[in-house]
Amino acid sequence: MQLFKYPYLVQNEILDNMKFSDLFMFSFVSKRMKKLIESSSQMQRFKIINAIKYDHLDEGTFVCIPVHGFPDNVIQIAERDDTENDYFQLNVPGKMIDFRISYEDNKYLPVASYQPDERETLVASIHDYLLDFFGDSVEYYWHAHDYETPIPHLQNLIACLELNTSEDILDMENLENFISLSPVLKSIDMYISNVTAPFSQGSKFYQTEYIQTCQEEPNLPDILHHFQGRQASVEIVRYNIGHVIEFVNAWKSGEAFDKLEHIIIEIILGRYRENEILHAIGAKHIDSAKKPPTHVLPKVYRDMAFDKDPNTDPITSYTYVVRETDNRMASVLVQGRRFDFGVWDKTEEEFLRMME
């Protein structure tokens, strides 16, 4: 390799002017090159990286690094295109992989290619390489944008699904199969308008830690009855006050939502009837002369590239409800089109003492 003919300071200068994608490509060349990169000043650049994202799209899976608010693609993983004849092989530890260089959007990008039956092993090899390179210092996210191919089960991988079905009818059987074969999802972000059937009550869909949906009907999917995760944000077109009341009463009785921390239920058409809801759920009221504490928690999931707020929306409310089984309480805020519900890690007595 010509780079090794130069003094170490010159090597560093050359590496300093390389993009992340070039550095990764060089690191595949040999163990010696990988050690050079790891021992150089480049590791200071890598320290700003706190997440690596696999963005799974129709044209392949892009491995990208969110830097300064923008995802920087460093590798594309795609099925081999036999019409191209410019492939070359590199040794990603344990496996020889066919690469080619593509040029799109004024940028050269290495493309790791696979035959149809080799996809899983190639993805695993690249992931193992990244784990070896970065270790536990970063979080590894897989973002699926369809439900054709299940998310792989890989070490330290955080599985996420982003889905927009505003144009196509949602294939519930295939989606259920996708979710059942994938790891338990960390996040689901779905715009759902053409759902023809509910998820099964025992679906892994409801085990997702964070769900954000925009949906036509309150029970498609039926998050307000079956959610088992920690945080959710639900926008509903066709509002049904009964679903919100049933949700709160199920939490109060201890029958459901034992892991719930925070949920927003926003209606698109109409407005909440605040007094009717508060009466139906048996809400308690804080003395207006006191200042209620604000409920806020770290987000279970956020897009590391674009979401700069690490916390849930704050809830400061004079109304709350109490869970019968353990006397834990939750702040309730009803304003216009929005219903906020935040569970405290305190009993009612502990909560009230905070205002003394």
From TrEMBL:
Q: Which PROSITE patterns match?
A: FBOX
Organism ancestry: Eukaryota, Metazoa, Ecdysozoa, Nematoda, Chromadorea
Q: Which residues form the F-box domain?
A: 1-46
InterPro entries the UniProt entry points to: F-box_dom
Its gene name is Cnig_chr_X.g25455
Supply the name of the protein: F-box domain-containing protein
